[in-house]
Amino acid sequence: MFKIFRGIEGSVIMNIRSLGYAFIESKDPSEWRVFGTEVLGMMEVPGVGDENVFLKIDERPFRFAIVPGAENRLKLLGLELYDENDFVKAIQELEASGTSYTRGSRADLKMRGVLDLVRFNDPAGNTLELYHGADLDYAKFISPLGISGFETGDFGSSGFGHAVLPAENLDETHTFYKNVLGFGDSDYMHFKFSDDPDEPGLALKFMHVNNPRHHSVALFGGESLAGCIHLMLEVKTIDEVGECLQRVIEREIPITSTLGRHTNDNMLSFYMMTPGDFPLEFGCEGLQMDWDNYTPTKTTLPSHWGHKFAL
């Protein structure tokens, strides 16, 4: 099912398997405790540090880690590699591309429950971590809201969902994700926000890694003060999406997009504002792809219906 991509001077490059975790900086992590458990249905679990909030959605010990800070923003994303051998190759690829990185400290590894990691910035300034050897504690996910489960693949192999990141230098950043990190293209989309024929609009590039999700990361050709355009979580049923929407309405949480169904990944979803000052997409029924029999597309219509965005 999976393709092998070629990197610097034709070498086989990184075997990234999934989008593993998100670290989110918060002025008040307790806001995420309430939002994560009482709105999204995530499960709070013990973590490292008294002020940190760790949220679980599957067999993995956590997927979102909220840490105290001076701003509300996405701090970094973790990308999971297959094993130690692929981790060593990934470091070699970073070095060959001239990308500066730092090794994770013992405290970093303990907090994340991984064997090793490196941290670096992409050309747009988004912070990423490459890691391997993640803990799998097999502790049962029990949603405080009765959600049957989140779609993350067998033993979490497809990751927690997807992330859309800002990249004003879109072409340079896209090239880095393809030629250094080994992402494959899924889809290209160009948004206009008015009927003005002279409006340049903004572009989105959707990319996948070695799992069946239509995209694990997308790059948006604009900026975000919160360091994130949006994160996405996927549940198993339409009812669970609707029930979450009802909770959002009852709590008067700002809805940044109405319910709708996307064209490129078929996701039925809506978007809400988070305590991180960026939106979160909550959906179901996303496509599972066969990458050996797929050609990247250019989508001219973002949704079959719905998804009226509040900009």
TrEMBL record:
- The coiled-coil segments of this chain are none
Known PROSITE patterns for this protein?
Answer: VOC
Domain VOC intervals: 18-133, 159-285
> Short name of one Pfam family for this protein?
Glyoxalase
Mind telling me which InterPro entries this protein's record contains? Answer: Glyas_Fos-R_dOase_dom, VOC_core
Q: What is this protein called?
A: VOC family protein
Taxonomic source organism: Zhongshania aquimaris
Q: What is the lineage of its organism?
A: Bacteria, Pseudomonadati, Pseudomonadota, Gammaproteobacteria, Cellvibrionales
